[in-house]
């Protein structure tokens, strides 16, 4: 029963980590802008995907687990292209194609070059070379969540550019994965990775919440009052006859000397 529960929780976490970046991709496409979405964050996540792919394929994990880093890496790659293409980065198309191509070549070469020899070593009972790739992937994934804190510091803690649905999905994936370890077999590396990711993502949520309580709520209140004043002014202006344009102009700009 415990094993079944652990498998279900792990599967949910894996699925969430497969699709987590889709809301961010849609968000970037609609805004046509990636301000606040740090380029280094996405680059580090792109780089961690090949290491995770090598790790899971080499130790012959279940098919869903092997698919997960490939889907995650693909969506990271798409987001990275968006960051390069949309403002504020806006690199040339030649530069974008070059970077995108180099990453794909690196991924394919690394996976093809390491998986076969590592799988043989792993089957012979030597596990540490495979584990190195898992550790490297975990470090890069965790480091990728540090650049958003630089963006938060620039904006007094406000989250800009990061889609909250994406962030919530990513956090949920980490929490479900932690829950699977709690009721199943303890994986020290997974425990550390999921805990770090969950902690840093909760920190991002808390940062924005604190910003909203300190600054955002007051700004929203002022914007609401200003909108109400403008609406009432427009209603009054609509009732004024159009016969005397000079008087109408004077009313619209009460601070202007006529």
Automatic annotation (TrEMBL):
- Return the GO cellular component terms, semicolon-separated: membrane
Keyword field contains Transmembrane helix: yes
Q: Which UniProt keywords apply?
A: Membrane, Transmembrane, Transmembrane helix
Q: Where mainly located?
A: membrane
| Membrane-crossing residue ranges in chain numbering | 6-26, 38-58, 70-89, 96-116, 128-147, 159-179, 191-213
Name of the featured protein: PQ-loop-domain-containing protein
Q: Which Pfam family is one of those matched by this entry?
A: PQ-loop
Membrane topology per record: Multi-pass membrane protein
Q: Where in the cell is it found?
A: Membrane
Keyword Transferase carried by entry: no
Q: Which InterPro entries match?
A: LAAT-1, PQ-loop_rpt
